[in-house]
Each structure stands twice: as structure tokens, then as C-alpha cells.
Amino acid sequence: MKEFKHFINGEFVTSALTFENRCPADNSVIGTIYEAGKEEVDGAVRAAKAAMKGPWGKLSVNARVELLYKVADRINERFEDFVEAEARDTGKPKSLARHIDVPRGAANFKVFADMIKNEPTEAFRFEGPDGVQATNIAHRTAKGVIAVISPWNFPLLLTTWKVGPALACGNTVIVKPSEETPATTTLLGEVMNECGVPAGVFNVVHGFGPDSAGEFLTTHPDVDAITFTGETRTGEAIMKAASVGLRDISLECGGKNPAIVFADCDLEKAVAGTMRSVFVNCGQVCLATERVYVERPIFDAFVEKLAAAASKIKLGAPDDADANMGCLISKEHQQKVLSYYQLAVEEGATVVLGGGVPKMAAGLEEGAWVEPTIWTGLPDDARVVMEEVFGPCCHIRPFDSEEEVLELANNTHYGLGASVWTENTSRAIRVSEQLEVGLVWVNCWFLRDLRTPFGGAKQSGIGREGGVHSLEFYTELKNICIQL
């Protein structure tokens, strides 16, 4: 049994209220989490604000870069500690955590440390009509105290995706991790102390959203900006909170992402890529494919091949070396996903594969397990086609023309990501440009260069992070005009 304390001003502290941390693989209690109240959140914000005026605020870019490199290296030195913590919190296979979560978590610090050393700004020579001359120089300064609200599906990866550039730019942060997954963010506090990051630069408060740590943090008047990854409804609440004081926001929210598979694709590659985009991390990925549109000549073959591949998925506990899929994050989320499985049948779906709860080995029966599931035959306005499920499932529908499939793919309130499978380069570009999303992958999925913009359209979010776009969000850009 572990205790997950708040990390405030370089120290681990408790609070009056606590709640349970459970491993979703078997629903066992694995720890106690302290819930932050207004006092703890205010203490974290004051510590972060003070650190901006202390040694941290006076560090050179090179000194910050050196510290962030130390943090990345220390994460890698404690690699298995982070793997263990992430796997127990999420129920995902350790093989996945070793391949994606922890390496990317460490890389986020180094990538943005390198980026800040090469920050682009503007300079203009000006001559007015009266002959007055001036030089204008753009200069970036830290925005201040950043609230980071991070999700439970990739806790370390998506926390460091925001903390890395925020610290690289000279800000201080208060992280409110998901109440489901406190472990790796708390462990990151240990790493910060081990690497000599000044007290107050990195802070962690645990708790829930409304009337808890999340609300107290996002409404705090001394928080200068808020970055959030999670569901759209929570993003809307955060946007309202940020409007008081006109604080800046970056929101990466839900998705109902399409894959478009043309008849001229490399079929084996398209099946393998769609397998990954539908089922990786048990479908709990904001970019996951839940709608698959396949050109009619290859529709039957695609459905057959995808179902055959998905039927070989091995569900298992985090320590199971043969498992390539874990469980959902919680029993509550299991009930939500199962309700959509039932709704799909009620709406007229043909269940090609799955649709229920798998029979698991002894000791795992109480875990949040669901079967990988594939449907066909649903109408285009079915709720299962229109609403984000966030589970290991997809609906496959045939199409006959580019115009038709673009209309289908764009018929959603969301606009996060999409994938296009075709060997025709002109078609790939033509279709990609017309998709109403923030990210398009052609003949691949989730191939990420951290220098590129990341974010969604419509109800999938506001703003872009990644590369120079993160520098733009985490800094204030001022113009210095020097008359000559």
C-alpha cells in the first residue's frame, strides 16, 4: 500500500481528505491518495509564484536546459520504477509502458530543452515617412504559473508533454493528475528533487474536478494559463473558469476519429495500421479510430482481415509478457463502454467480434475488462457512430466515392485526427486537405514528430502545442522597439 501525497514547494505533504487508488486489472486497492483542498492548492500556487521570483526566474536558458536534461536522464535511470507505477495505475501491459509511456515521457524534456535553445523570434528594421528609423526585436518571456490538468490514459507521457515545454520556457507548474493515476506524476516530484530543480518550480496536487483540486486550481486568480487534456465537457468548464481574468488556455479534448481506406491501399498495411489505431491502449487514446470507412470493392476483405487479426489479441495483467492489451481504467469506465456495446446491438449493429466481457484468469475477474469489438451495419446517425466511446471498438462502413466519404468523415462535432490509406499520393493530399481535423496520417497512425503542431478542430480543442507552437503558448511574446 502506497501513499500518494501532494508535492508542494519541494516537499511531500498530506491533507485532511483521502480516497482509494485501485489497480483496474483486478480492482484491488493499491494505495491512498490525499485530496487537495483550497489550502493545498493555494499553497502550491504561492510556491510556484515565489519560485518565478527566486533562483528559477533568474536562470539562463542554458542552465534550464541542463536541468531538464538531468530530469530526462533520471527518468531513464529509474525507468522500471516508472514502468511499474504506470502499469499498476492504468492496468496496461508493462510492454506498452516500456515502449511508449516512459521513453516518450523522458524524451519530452530533452526535445523541448533543445527547442528553447533554438527559439525563433522576429526582427524588423523600420523607417517611417518622416525619416525616423527603428529596430524592432521580438523577445519571449515566461508566461508565469501554469496549471496542468492531465488525463489518465497516458499519465506520464501527457503530463511531461506539457511540463517539459512549460519549464523549458521558464514557467513554473502545478500539475493536477487524474484521480485515477497519481503514481508517475508523484514520482516525478522525487526526480525533480534528485536533479536539483528549485523548490516551487514543479508542484503536484491530487484530487477531483468540481469542488476539488481541479476547480480550485483552474479558478485560482494567480494561475496565469491553463493547459488541459481530457473530455470535451471538462474542457468547456475549464474554458469558463479561464475566462475570468482572461487567462490563456490550451485544450485538447475528445475525438471520434475516422479512418478512410481506399481500394488502392496496401491492404495488409491498412489492416495492421487500423488494428493499432483501434485497439492500442485498449482504445483509450484521444486519437483512436472508432469510425472506419472502407471503399466497397475491398470492404468484405477488410472486415474479415481486421476481425481475424483482432481475434488474436491477448488480454492480460500488466506482468503478463504475452499480453498485448490491458484493461480499461476503472470499473466505472467499464460500465460506460459496456453500455455502448449494448446500445450498438439495440441500434441494429451486426457484431462481427466481441461485444461483451471476456473470461479472465483467476484473480482478474473483478478487473475492468472488455472484449475488443467490431461492428458493421449501423445507420450513420446511430449514437455509437456519433459519440466517443473511448474503448477498444470500431464501426466499419462501406463507401463508394471520395465525396461521400468526406461527407461521412466530417459529419461529427469532433475534429481531432484521421488516417487515410491509399497508394495514390494526389488523392492522399486532396482528401487530407478536406478533412476537418487537426491531424491527418497517411498510410500510418500516431507517427509523431514533436516539432509539429498538435491539436484539434471543432469540439476537439482549442490551440496547438508541439514545436514552436508550445513556445508560443508557454511564453509571452513582447516587441522591443529601439529608435535609431
What is this structure's SSE topology?
Elements: E1 2-4, E2 6-8, E3 11-13, E4 17-23, E5 28-35, H1 38-53, H2 55-58, H3 61-77, H4 79-90, H5 94-117, E6 123-127, E7 133-142, E8 145-149, H6 155-168, E9 172-176, H7 183-194, E10 202-204, H8 213-218, E11 225-229, H9 232-243, E12 248-252, E13 257-261, H10 267-279, E14 289-295, H11 299-310, H12 331-346, E15 350-353, E16 373-376, H13 383-386, E17 393-399, H14 402-410, E18 414-415, E19 417-421, H15 425-434, E20 439-442, E21 457-458, E22 461-462, H16 468-474, E23 475-483
Parallel strand pairs: 1-5, 8-9, 8-11, 9-10, 11-12, 13-14, 13-19, 14-17, 16-17, 19-20
Antiparallel strand pairs: 2-3, 4-5, 6-7, 7-23, 12-22, 15-16, 18-21
Helix pairs in contact: 3-5, 4-5, 5-6, 10-11
